[in-house]
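Flavodoxin-like fold domain-containing protein
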Amino acid sequence: MKESAVSALKKKGWNVIESDLYALKFNPVASRDDITGKPTDPDHFKYSAETAQAWKEGRLAKDIVEEQKKLEKADLVIFQFPVYWFGMPAIMKGWLDRVLTLGFAYTFQTMFSEGLFKNKKALLSFTTGGPQSMYTPSGTNGDMNVILWPIQNGILNFCGFKVLEPQILYAVAHVPQEARVGMLKSWEKRLETIWDENPVKFLPLQDFEGFSGGFVLKKEVEESLSESKYAPTVGQHLGKPLPPDSQVKAECSKL
């Protein structure tokens, strides 16, 4: 999947930067070693505050800085991984923990639709062990839309990324070789026009109260959504049925 993406994007004239986390032996563990020099409060070390200050002062660990430079250059970020225990492998989660530092990737004044990465796009491209039927509202693993919400909303949308439809390859180890070849060709075909795609839908930050209001939906917004059959999102469900495929299909793709 990764090799196909690199090849397809380069054919379309993209400059591609890769981060093979295993080849880099990337350290996934957030710790005091992520800053150089003395902490601002050595007796009560707060990771987010210390790394934010270190980012401002150029004191972050070298491997974090190198990955942040790649992100700064990126218009589109593709996260390629196999699903482990309903999420990302530890090494990729650790990359997110360490690289998306306060100040660089987000602030509490610039988040979600107003996030620092609002001019960038991102998508998850991943493989599963089980077939698609397992990841449905009636499947044993449950609705894939629910599984995706913490990553797509809680990480990518939180930082401002425009989140494109995920590229999901189900049960790749259990299908014939010709099926896998077809999956790769479909992925390559999609990448030819990837930049033109619309993102999946999230509610904009202005629909919510701010700090003083507890970051909940404004009353007038909630009232405007009251007549809808479905919830506005997976997370802000308002006690209603979840919107079908809201995390796996762009808004304009829905029937």
